[in-house]
Amino acid sequence: MAIREDQNRFKTIIKGKVREDFKRYVTNGELIGRREGELVKIPLPRIDIPTFRYGPKQNEQGVGQGDGEPGDGPGQPGQGAGKAGENPGEHMLEVEISMEELADILGEKLQLPNIQPKGSKNLMTEKNKYSGIAPVGSEGLRKFKQTYKKALTRYISSGTYVPEDPVIIPIRRDYQYRSVKKTQTPHTKAVVIYMMDVSGSMGDEQKEIVRLESFWINTWLKKHYKGLETRFIIHDAAAKEVDEETFFKTSESGGTLISSAYKLCQQIIQQDYPFSEWNVYPFHFSDGDNWSGEDTRICVNLLKEFFLPNVNVFSYGQVESKYGSGQFLKDLQKEFPSDERVTLSQIENRDKILDSIKDFLGKGK
User: Fold this and answer.
1) What's residue 49's pLDDT?
2) Domain ranges of the chain
3) DSSP character for 298?
4) pLDDT, mean over the chain
5) What percentage of the chain carries pLDDT values higher than 70?
6) Which DSSP helix (H) or strand (E) runs through 206?
7) pLDDT (tens digit, 9 = 90+) per residue, 37-85?
8) Count of CB atoms within 10 A of residue 216's CB?
9) 3.40.50.1820, 3.40.50.1100, 3.40.50.410, 3.40.50.300: which CATH number matches 188-361?
10) 272 or 134, greater pLDDT
11) Distance from first CA to last CA of the chain, Å, rounded?
């Protein structure tokens, strides 16, 4: 019990450390590089490792006064290397924290509301659970302990139980079996589809901002949807689906046709993620340059006719770039000034990442 209490106290210290330096973790990506599955390893400095400390020598007598001569045994003088210092070293302790706990810290820091899965995506999954006892069943499900207790009760109540010869023989009516109880639990599925402009104006810094936001968006959504799926689309004048590593490391150039990404996203949703079964979260990141006003009109029509009536929320994040005009955000603000189904966020630099995450996830959709 004391060990468990100590572990809980230590976990509280860890979480407190993450909370204290949370903005640094978010903007520098320290946690992303230390992710292993559903756990993240965090280095915590300035935690003293327990050691024995000896008091001043009072006299020549005491523990350790044996028959040996000074210098006997391992660790004789003169075998060390370097000069002894007078200050303790700084020890780094690597501890683990779960993605679920990170999500809790993120929600607490940004005061995020819990997500309410959309309408018919709340499917009921029926599961069989052996949670009861029945007098009939297959032999493979017989509960021997309960059967023995039933037989013992029968012996005692009938007065045939003999303590000196405690032989209990169950009969058919004593048999007890595990019984199946059907339970229904809500089962929600969700997919996040990330789209990113990789034209020449989107440099490494802009992509790193997108990478950091995506990690924390996923962390929060996974708290609400177990088995969250992710898909990745990159585009310049043409769009293609890629894996996660390519999404964040690719270098492209050329013009920008944002509609190419929206059309590919639409195709992926129609093929793999029917709206009746999935909660769908499209995220698009760009510096706001588009090839023409005509292509922007195509994007707006796709949003109005396909995305907004069906997805949970459509999110657009505009990353600041000295080469981008930023016009696309202005166009969307004009077309959707107060539509709750669209979330728009301007990300000027790394320090604005937390604000942008709040923009995207603060609606609880």
Assistant:
1) 44
2) 1-49+89-111, 131-185, 188-361
3) H
4) 80
5) 74
6) helix 204-224
7) 777 776 665 444 455 555 555 555 545 555 555 555 555 555 555 555 5
8) 23
9) 3.40.50.410
10) 272
11) 41
| pLDDT tens figures, 261-294 | 999 999 999 999 999 889 999 999 999 989 899 9
Residue 348 has pLDDT above 90, yes or no: yes
Distance CA(256)–CA(345), nearest Å, equals 20
Q: How confident is the model at residue 319 (pLDDT cuts 50, 70, 90)?
A: very high
Which tokens sit at 91?
């020890």
Sign of CA dihedral 78, 81, 87, 90: negative
Q: Determine the Cα–Cα distance for residues 318 and 289; give it in Å rounded to an integer.
A: 10
| Nearest Cα to Cα of residue 195 among 269, 237, 253, 258 | 258
The Cα-based distances of 15 to 12, 22, 27, 102, 279 in angstroms read 5, 10, 18, 8, 30
Lookup: tokens for 290: 């588009």
Residue 247 contacts residue 235 (beta carbons within 8 Å): no
Q: Please report which residue ranges of 225-274 form alpha helices under DSSP H.
A: 244-249, 258-272
Q: Give the model confidence (pLDDT) of 96-118 as tens digits.
A: 788 888 889 899 989 999 887 87
| Residue 262, amino acid | Y
Main-chain phi, psi angles of 60, to 5 degrees: -85, -10
What Cα–Cα distance (Å) separates residue 30 from each residue in 24, 39, 199, 207, 245?
8, 13, 27, 16, 17
Question: Which candidate, 197, 208, 211, 205, places its Cα nearest to that of 290?
Answer: 197
Q: Report CA 20 to chain centroid distance, whole Å.
A: 19
**Paired sense of beta strands 279-286 and 190-197, if any:** parallel
